[in-house]
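Memo to structure team: turn this sequence into structure tokens by end of day. - J.P.
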Amino acid sequence: MSIINEMRLDFPALPENESFARMVISGFMLPLNPTLEQLADVKTAVSEAVTNAIIHGYGMGKGTVRLHATRSDDGTLAIDVIDRGCGIADVEHARQPFYTTSEGEERSGMGFTVMESFMDAVEVQSAVGRGTTVRLIKRIPARAEALAQQA
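Reply from structure team:
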């Protein structure tokens, strides 16, 4: 497996940039020739990860979110959503359904569960006071076969 394309985008941790991140990742993954369902799955997972960074990582304060993605020749799309916010003390606990750090707000605590349901793999690395990286992985193999035939 080798990387055939890569992108990196930094943007302010503002709620309106969540939809921007969805559009950017859509454009990046189009050469993989995803189905509409695959496209929607990835956009939803990215939306959840970016929203978590904005709301939980920075507490709606100032900060930067990085969207980093790679496409590999085997059809693997890997997306990192990175913040340098407050971090997560107990990642395994935070990945449990209905867990939320937002008290008094209407948050379902289903962000990681949603990401996991739409992606092939979700990895989370975090350190308190240093931020969080959420890696989302989706395999779109049909396009990989076409790329191999063109080579």
